[in-house]
Amino acid sequence: MTPLARGYSAPGCGPTKGHVVARPMNALPAGDAHDRRLVNFAAALRSLREQAGEPSLAQMSQRSGVCIASLSDAHSGIKLPTWRTVRGYISACGIHDTTAWRSRWDDVLLSQHTERASSTHAALMKRWASTQQVTPPQWIKDEVELARLLDQMRRFRGLSLRDLARRSAGFSHHTYGAVLRGDRPVTTDVLLAMLQACRVDRGAAQRWLGQLARVRPAEALRVSGLMAKFDTRRARGISPHRGFRGPRVAAAR
């Protein structure tokens, strides 16, 4: 039987006008070689879809604005989907309170990162998760380590490079990739844009800026000026823990 664009007709029933049946899903990965947390998360998504009446992926895409391929990958159990995809998936299944699902997704994400990261970075991410304060360690030895930590922060927040570019106008995902790989320097503007995209509060942002000024003395003067502005806002009664705007850049770089 040739699959239809929006599903297929149930075997033995023939096409039914106005009725779309979702394609059967592939089996989830099995065995100890696979991340059981991830597989269980994918299984929970599948169960949610079944409870919603098994809408086709095309229908879910129309409801959520997430492409069919991303929705399919989300319940494959092979790779953890982005939070944007998960949010679209569950909203297409009628779930609008995302709190519980966000917590489950955060748990899988954190477990993956702590397993892959060094013991130092794993401990740092656990602290981020427990305190909800994405602050840098007290000592960053050089710019290379700063770039690695910023990449860990991005992953901790569940953001792709394109997500960074969408959340903070001014830099393309290519620029962010080059900076996080160490091919381009971490500048004050790039750091501010990343902190904004990762929803880092003003108090934590000041600590990241202080680390940048220490490992890249060329940025110290610019950072000093920003710190003075932060202090002025604090003196005026603006909470240092409120969000802040990143740099205004005329065009994407």
Account of the 3D structure:
With 253 residues, the chain is mainly α. Helices cover 56% and strands 0% of the residues. It has twelve helices and no strands. It has helices spanning 36-51, 57-64, 68-74, 83-92, 99-116, 119-131, 143-156, 161-167, 173-181, 188-197, 202-215, 220-235. Helix 2 packs across helix 4 and helix 8 (161-167) packs across helix 9. The longest helix is centred in the middle third of the chain and has 18 residues, at 99-116. The protein is elongated, with a radius of gyration of 22 Å. The protein starts with 35 loop residues before the first helix and ends in an 18-residue tail after the last helix. Residues 1-19 and 247-253 have low confidence and may be disordered.
Oligomer: single chain
Tally of DSSP helical segments: 12
Give the low-confidence spans.
1-19, 247-253
Number of strands: 0
Largest sheet: number of strands, sense, barrel closure:
none
Which bin fits the share of residues in helices? 55-70%
Strand fraction band?
Answer: under 5%
Overall mean pLDDT stands at 81
Secondary structure class reads mainly alpha
Shape: elongated
Alpha carbon gap, first and last residue: 48 Å
Q: What does the radius of gyration come to?
A: 22 Å
Topology order in helix (H) and strand (E) letters: HHHHHHHHHHHH
Sum this structure up briefly.
The protein is mainly alpha-helical and about 250 residues long. It is built from twelve helices and no strands.
SSE blueprint and pairings:
Elements (H helix, E strand, L loop, with lengths): L35 H16 L5 H8 L3 H7 L8 H10 L6 H18 L2 H13 L11 H14 L4 H7 L5 H9 L6 H10 L4 H14 L4 H16 L18
